[in-house]
Design brief:
Structural class: mainly alpha
Radius of gyration: 23 Å
Order of helices and strands: HHHEEHHHEEEHEEHHHHHHHHH
Number of helices: 16
Oligomer: single chain
Shape: globular
Distance between the termini: 29 Å
Low-confidence stretches: 5-17, 464-476
Largest sheet: 3 strands, antiparallel
Helix content: 55-70%
Number of strands: 7
Length: 476
């Protein structure tokens, strides 16, 4: 991201007046391909189930595709000049997740809304529709980012308060306090915190980037970063990490750390920060291994899951077997995941292990295609960042993109036993309302940032004050 180091041209203020509808040919063509792919998957699943050509979950799929079409129509009528690739890619990932939820046993999830009992696929459809509406609405409504950049500490405090609320209102699941339940709805605050943390880091780093990139403290032969500028940012990040670790949400902790380190490197271009961050990660991992039984168990399972194949290593072993059964081309939708005692062998198959289920039924080719979709999101997000009008928008787009890409990488690597299993969801594919809505916020903000007619950023404020004087003293 060398573009961050240069001076960005001032954006031209859009002409005042009514926006005219703008035809989005590329997006429409891609959405048509998405519809064809999902209909083919539904037909394949129905054929496997009934032994004859029929659509599986045809009504649910029709509602989902109809929602995608309405979101596209909203973009057309609004006349916004936003990215035309993100929505189809996210739509395809969400559709793959919906097909997988249709394929899995419906009693894995039981939700009640207004007296109606919903199974896994029906509940997932509701969250997908809400997520698409949120993303499409943000893409249309967000015209400037002043409300994001000026209140960075307020956003950070709100995120920390939300996490602290889980200690009071949260419920314990498998030894971890992760979600808050309000009536029939529950959600994980850490999902929203990842977006809030990126907003805070983007605002803070863009305001202090020149000082972080150019000034340093001399300690012997080493040039260390200016601590007065790093302390507020590290403190906010460390509080979030500490709370997440206490809650035993190790996947969120790893995600926060990786995004923090990458965003700091993108903002400053200083490899020393990466080295120091990795050393801190190794030291912190060792301490966590010695202090926390859950960390020690997951690390031991990662090293040798077969030693406890009927216990704590069961989930990892079954995931590896699933990938092995899938082979190159997979067994086909609905033809894999053989029942063991009337149950699918993969525990938490609809959340933590959905990537392994895809690996069995779609094969190596299928999961490479899914990973390719995340690479497209990464490419589009970094393209949006590179063309941003100022450092804040560039860092915000970069951070939001990294949230999705790193999360997908972590859960895929965990399912494949490349790293210890962390228990986070596969973005847009796994079941989970809080995950879908948080990632919808990410996509909606990326779409809004990609608009070439968005209002220009406010004039930059030069960093100064007490922190600048402290940094100057240290740099002498």
């Amino acid at each position: 991201m060398s573009a961050l180091a240069g001076t960005r041209p001032a954006a031209r203020r859009p002409a005042i007046g009514r926006l005219r509808p703008r035809f989005r040919r590329r997006e429409l063509g891609l959405l048509a391909l998405v519809a064809l792919a999902l209909l083919a998957g539904s037909l394949s699943l129905g054929w496997e189930r009934a032994g004859r050509p029929e659509l599986a979950g045809g009504g649910l799929l029709a509602i989902y595709l109809g929602t995608l079409a309405l979101v596209h129509l909203g973009q057309v009528l609004a006349g916004r000049r936003t990215d035309q690739v993100l929505l189809p890619v996210v739509g395809l990932l969400g559709g793959i997740g919906l097909l997988m939820m249709i394929r899995l046993p419906q009693d894995l999830v039981q939700q009640s809304f207004g007296g109606a009992s919903l199974g896994l696929a029906q509940a997932q459809l509701i969250w997908l529709v809400l997520a698409l509406v949120v993303a499409g609405s943000l893409a249309i409504v967000v015209r400037n980012d002043t409300w994001l950049r000026l209140y960075k500490y307020t956003w950070a405090a709100a995120g920390i308060a939300l996490l602290l609320a889980t200690f009071v209102l949260g419920r314990n699941t498998n030894g971890a306090t992760l979600d808050i339940r309000l009536g029939p709805v529950s959600g994980q605050p850490s999902e929203l915190l990842k977006v809030i943390l990126v907003i805070f880091l983007a605002a803070y780093l863009s305001e202090n980037r020149p000082l972080l990139a150019e000034r340093s403290w001399l300690v012997g032969p080493f040039r260390l970063p200016p601590l007065p500028y790093l302390i507020p940012m590290i403190a906010m990040w460390a509080i979030a990490i500490l709370i997440v670790v206490v809650q035993r949400d190790l996947g969120a902790a790893l995600l926060f750390f990786a995004v923090f380190l990458l965003l700091l490197y993108v903002a400053t271009g200083r490899g020393l920060y990466v080295v120091l961050g990795l050393l801190a990660f190794v030291a912190g991992s060792y301490v966590a291994y010695r202090l926390f039984g859950v960390v020690r168990e997951r690390f031991d399972v990662w090293l040798d899951p077969w030693a406890t194949a009927q216990g704590s290593g069961y989930q990892v072993v079954q995931a590896l077997y699933a990938f092995g059964r899938g082979g190159l081309l997979g067994t086909g939708l609905g033809a894999g995941l053989p029942s063991v005692g009337g149950q699918i062998p993969l525990p938490e198959v609809h959340t933590d292990m959905v990537f392994a289920a895809l690996g069995e039924e779609l094969g190596l080719v299928g999961i490479l295609g899914v990973l390719g979709l995340y690479l497209v999101i990464l490419e589009r997000g970094l393209r949006i960042a590179a063309s941003a009008a100022d450092d804040f928008r560039a860092l915000l787009a970069t951070g939001l993109t990294l949230v999705v890409a790193v999360q997908a990488l972590v859960i895929a690597a965990g399912n494949l036993k490349l790293i210890p299993l962390t228990g986070i969801t596969l973005p847009f594919v796994s079941y989970g309302g809080s995950s879908l809505l948080a990632n919808a916020l990410v996509v909606g903000l990326l779409l809004a940032l990609s608009d070439r007619g968005v209002e220009p950023p406010p004039p930059p404020r030069a960093p100064g004050g007490r922190l600048a004087r402290l940094a100057d003293r240290g740099a002498r």
